[in-house]
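User: Can you write out an input/output pair for a complex, sequences first and structure second?

Assistant: Here is one pair. Inputs:
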Amino acid sequence: MKKLLHKQTGLIFFPAFDWAISPTHPEREERLLYTRDQIFEEGIMDLPQIAEYTPSLAEIHDIARVHFCVPRVEDQITEAHLIAAGAAILLADKIVQGEIKNGFALVRPPGHHAMRVVHGNRGFCNINNEAIMVEYLRSRHALKRIAIIDTDVHHGDGTQDIFWHDPDVLFISFHQDGRTLYPGTGFTYELGGPRAYARTINIPLPPGTTDESLLYMVDNLILPILEDFKPEFIVNSAGQDNHYTDPLGSMRITAHGYARLTEKLRPDLAVLEGGYAIETALPYVNMAIILALAGLDYTGVREPDYWPGRFKETPGQKEQVRSIVEELLKRWEMREKVSPDPKNIVGNYYQRRKHIFYDTDYIEENQIEKLRLCDNCPGFLVIDSEANHGYGTAGSVLCISVPLAACSKCRTEAEDIYERSKKATEYRYIYLQDKSADIFYGYDSESRKEWRTEG
Amino acid sequence: MYVGVDVGGTYTDAVLLEKNKVRAIAKIPTREDLLSSILEAIDSILKDVDTKKIKRVVFSTTIITNLIAEHKYDDVDMLIIPGPGLNHDYYKLRPYIHILSGAVDYRGREIIRLNEQEIEAVLSEIAARGSKKIGVVGKFSPRNTSHEKRVAALINNKYPDWQVELGSRIGGQLNFPRRVETTYLTCATRRPYHLFLESVRQALAKREINADVFILKADGGTTPLVGSEELPVETIFSGPAASTLGVQALTPPGETSVVVDIGGTTTDLALILSGRPLLSSKGARVKEQLTQVRALAVKSVSVGGDSVLEPDGNKIIIRPERMGPAYCLGGPVPTPTDALRVLDLTSLGNKDKAVEAMTIIGNALGLGVKDAAREAVSQVVAVIAAEIEKMFLEWEQEPAYRVWEVLHKHKVRPRIVAGVGGGALGFITQIAEKLGCSPLIPKYAAVANAIGAAVAKPTMQVSLRADTEQGYYIIQEEGFQEKIRGKKFNEQNALELAKKSLIRRAAKYGLEVAPDEIEVTRMEVFNMIRDWHTGGRLFDVTVQTPRGIICRIGYEGDY
């Protein structure tokens, strides 16, 4: 019997050894194999500070609460996706209920490139595990203010898209500068929608950034912002491709750096994202993160080819990071004093046009996203999305999203738009995601069939 | 004819089986001298029996458990090679742990070299203290035995009379701290265990019993006497394994049952799922230490027939101690057995005394004698039933690492609660009722453990790990590392190699194994992709001789 003097760190290890995007893809069965070997050989699961759980499946309803999957949720996911999302939800539940002090969902497949509308796989992601877990928490546990810190080397554009207009979810992503790496976004001027200004913070870092500048940035930018925002729950989208051996990134972070990062952020729940140096990084970084979460000594964790002082930054790199930190701090401090750009306001709506590319599935999507500006609530979203699958356009879809805190006027207006659109022939599929009622509708205009999921 | 002997804490039981019928039974109080208890039991059942007719004898003994519990062994010096990772203080769980430089990674590649001067210095230190027992364990040694073997060679060179055990031979599964502990216990108990087995061998020879002799292991399989000396700790929790196999032999096949063995102070619970005893997924816990010993999933609850009953307010507390036998059998304090006696759920002991005992309890609680007895019984039943529920829940919650495994988790609930062991069988009916199961107290319940020992099958397993990128394979139980010959090495090759090794290993101990009856318990194949093409493959195969029992005990009709 493990002695429960203090609460434990919950762990779900789901390497999905029988699932892959394709046999030779970085997201393949082998990805977490050596991590498993390392964790098992170290006896991590036996440690009294660790509680291992088995994953359960998320429900279709949980996915529909966040995403508009075209045509339906079932078409865009496999069981592996439901298990990964389910693992995040399970641990989040246990943390909020006080059974464990924090947790790490070491799961595949990843999710942070999956946006609100999902026509296919992009950046190895189909559905966004963290977003699904966060919306579950807000719907089931009445949590309000949540912070998501995306530490993957790639900009978490999917998570950013989902919470762009949400003032209660603070999304902070640091990543290798988008001018040098997929997905090519995540610049400092991307700060969120008109009702959630500066609730999105992007920190592009120069290639070659080491632990030093990383931790400087955490100490001087992320921690002060978290102090101000006072989240009830902190999520870490924990990508491990900032590691100096990662084949897709050019950063110089070490396992120690990850441990220090985790120690400083003190996330309630970490969820694995990317990281494809499966032999040289993942076993060590994951060990370091687990030990840091559990409050155990990680100083003995060391990559075989690393020695202290191996990587040094140039003065130019250090300066670049410092000026980004300065700029963003200013933006954060001025956040209440900024008004939305009138160019984007059309009638009662704030409008954005987006062009989204799905690299894995070769889909090009065009979106017109409109936010209903309301003085009494965050307002609902109406998204016109058209996807070109390469073999021709699949037609347009209309996605209406009503937030948790919507006022009754907005709810009614959104419902009207939904009903009206069903009668027209403009859109192949029409969706109404009513988060305030926790009921999600979909309508196929060709077969004239409607479906819905409820809690 | 088969003989089964189970040495328990209180009694040593023996049975003589002919075909599938019980011919003779013996129950002797276990004395401090285990050997004499065993011999008395054997002599009792073999009275008037032609010893030439005995084909095999199986022992289940507590010798190792006792040795460890009473710390009747010399300390072992452990030379461990942990390398980077967890803080080394974490491994200092025994008095003489020496940390050596060196490291091997998860693929068995050397990361840090051994420092031979450092090793020589440590050896001198050990020699100066006069210790001669050494365990050598390296992290990831099952993937590369060379470091451990080099240290062993250095020891053999200078101190050829020292006893050296290698972690890679003893614990092939990935878990370094457990491997260290298992190696320690193996090294510590090997010599005393050998002496014990020698005396058993001699005693049997004197009685002209020339049958094959086996020892029961914690996982419910047997191993020939000689073979058991290799890994003495495998026999550590054979008692509960014996009871479980006994129930398997005394119940219809394919059933899901809970085996409840209520002893004096503890109740052992085991599960038989669809006719197969459930193995613990991790490894036995010995006192407070975790090991890699393969054992059945047995849970010990601190409640037994002789536990002390204490009134507390308007409740009864069951204390996990024993101050002597039940009050109705001459003991000092009221016990659950007294409660059973009052309610006529057992015929053990003096009823008047039992009533006296329950009166003491009743008065303190303001209850009548029968009510006090019922209260005591229902509490014992509640505790045991709750632990059984927990066991099933824990089994359902076992972590799964494949999509297929997560999807196919199913709820399993027992149909039968089978009671075995000594005198507290009166609880079984109510435990079964509480769980919605059928109670079963099989015929010969009192010696189910000896029957289990008698019908246990010899088991042996071999684990093979192959890395085609590095071009070698390891047979873990042999500590044998060899290059892979030829370019092609696929799943079929790995499996055949493993099976051949198993047959060879079994033959060494006089066991015949047919290739088609070999069970494959693990088959993992991973493609190693480097730069978008397959750089090699990793294979992890475990094969074993079939587990099971040699026969069911037949008795016409009544179950």
